[in-house]
Write a structure and sequence with these properties.
5-stranded parallel beta sheet, alpha/beta, single chain, 8 helices
Amino acid sequence: MVIEDDRALNGGIVFALEKEGYHVHSAYTLQEAEKSLKQRMNLILLDINLPDGDGRAFLQSVLAGQPVPVLLLTARDSEEDMVRGFQAGCDDYITKPFSMQVLLMKIAAVLKRSGGVSRQIYACGGLVYDFEKKTLMRHGEPAELTALECRLLEFFLNNRGIVLSRETLLERIWDADERFVEERTLNVTIRRLRMKVEDNPQQPAYIKTVFGLGYKWEDGS
């Protein structure tokens, strides 16, 4: 969640994070943020100076009992301000103005230290897949997946850019009863999955056929 009252900066951070595959909640005030805390968060980016209060006080009170890491965003760059931020309970600190690339690196580092999951969501173009919820959206519309289609899609997404032979797919993809999938079933599943992820299944942008070798998932263009 991004808690930042500067709407341009808030929007820029959200855009950068969603481009990297994160699912982001946005808030401009502490009151808005508190309402969103009913949902599980992996990380909170928190501005210090907000219209309805001090971010550090919010961190010490409302967020004190939350098992979620907090990265403070602030224009205050003195050693005293940084110390007060860490004393309030933040996990890291970044001063404005900052490079978006540096922010992304700090986020990845905090998530790694805290054991948070930084890539639960795959997002590319109009395609969004939630690994935890097993849900697929294409251009904002839900696409229903079978259990076998989910396993195949996740295997592709976890091996993006790698040519996967038919033998590898047949060995790794099992049906709901953990029975070996036949080659005909694999053919049907790939065809149906293409219909759900591709804008034009006849000219796939994601699930590419590598003739004589197998299939490869590419981030569609």
